[in-house]
Amino acid sequence: MKRIKKRDQEYIKQNNLKMILDIIKNKRSISRAEIVKITNMSPTSVSRIVGSLIDLGLVKETETSSSGVGRKAILLDLDLESVMTIGVYINKHIINVGIVNFGGEILYRDKIELNPKGTHPDTLINKACALIKDTIKKSKIDPSKIIGIGVSLPGIINSKNGEVIFSAPLSWENIHIAKVIESELNIKTVVDNDVKLKALAESLYGVGRNSGKTALVNFGRGVGSALIIDGEIFRGVTNIAGEIGHITIDPNGILCECGRRGCLQTFIVEDNLIEEANKVKKIVDIKEIFEAAYIGESWAVSILDRAITYMCITINNIVCMYNPDTIVLSGSLVEVYPEIIKEVEEKCRTSIWTPLRGTFKILYSELKSEADIIGPSTLALDTFLSFDI
Ligand SMILES: [Zn+2]
Known about the structure:
The protein is of the alpha/beta class. The protein contains 13 helices and 16 strands. It folds into three domains: about 1-80, Winged helix-like DNA-binding domain superfamily/Winged helix DNA-binding domain (Arc Repressor Mutant, subunit A, Orthogonal Bundle), CATH 1.10.10; about 85-195 and about 370-385, Nucleotidyltransferase, domain 5, CATH 3.30.420; about 205-365, Nucleotidyltransferase, domain 5. Helices cover about 40% and strands about 25% of the residues. A hairpin with a 5-residue loop joins strand 5 (about 95-100) and strand 6 (about 105-115). Helix 9 (about 285-295) packs across helix 10. The structure holds zinc ion. Transcriptional repressor of xylose-utilizing enzymes.
């Protein structure tokens, strides 16, 4: 089947358009001659394909630049305002919405804070739809330019049919969120897991820009990871690849939110660190553990030290499985408490399996909360941008 599909002329044409568009998107300001060099295609083919992209309004010719021998070359760039997508991020504390241009830049954004106890799907989806409508209105952007909405949320997602199969943080099961938003707003909608979309954003527009194989690991209310290979999300058969937080470390360990015992994330997540601390001292916020550790209280030092050990175990497991060139650390534990980063790096120096030491860089999320909007908007762009010529 694959071979038959690949031979199909229309498929090849669409692929060539997408490939050259991706090159222009990646380089921003590039000449036709440079595209010929990169693709090994004939100058005639490149000119024809670029012509189609210009006709579609996606690419425009920009100022001429000297090529060094006195000749002028016309450069190509994206027409940034030609298509827009909307990125939506939902968790139990917040809904973030942003309108993103063709170059992955957020033009307008808005948010609403939520009561974490009121996460009923109808309530949250209604609030998200109202916020999207409001953001479009306030932005004064021509709505006909918006080609799709991407939604990012924590959980197991069927990205093909837009269904949230299971989200422990939201307490949702089998919610066809994409369908509901589509019918409410009349804009095509796609949905995916938040960590996968964060990884996509960092790999295309953030700290992973120069990496071909980026693994992102998120340490926050849960532990998750995602792998991006050459700009594509690695999903596995049912889009669950990367759920490293639920690797069993201790079958007799403490109960995880997934209902099983001793999962890797139970050694790292905030709630469990707070619970552990409460065996010694009554606290309500993880901040108190960090504060106590600064002044050398041994109970706090040992809780954080154990969490850091398991963060390094997570990183080691990821590099053993995927052999990436870059690991991007993200999530509240590293974003809100950046002091933990140095200690993770220090410990990783000795805890990573020897053959993998020095084969990857550890970097830190550059886009932070912007990734929550750029990720889903990029997925919407990839899913709904069509080349009808
Ligand atoms: Zn679990």
